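During data preparation, a discrete fold description was generated, as reproduced here:
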Amino acid sequence: MTERPDREWMARANCRDSDTELFFPDHGDVPPEAAALCQECEVRSQCLAYALGLGEDARGVWAGTGERMRRRMRRTSGLRRDRKDPDHGTDAGYKQHERLGEKACRPCMDAHALYQSERKEAVGW
């Protein structure tokens, strides 16, 4: 079965072969082992954007963040709790924030920075 385009990043995640219990602790804290795996993960920004898009449905640890931390991120970034916007974590999402006059969320800012650096590399700057 082919991955959905918006979830292809999951196949590259550091946690893909880890014990899922590690990412669903009994308490609200992020276990150090999960945080370490996430810290070095190449798809961390996509993971965070996905979790933020899920809103309250995102249980457990995503991108090294716990549920409380993501609630705080949504609240301070202006993302509504129920907002399920597939553009978050993309350059298009960054531009959408600009069009709406919003401060871009961290995943969109990261995606925009990556896009800009790849663009500069492509044209030889």
Summary: The radius of gyration is 15 Å. The mean pLDDT is 80.
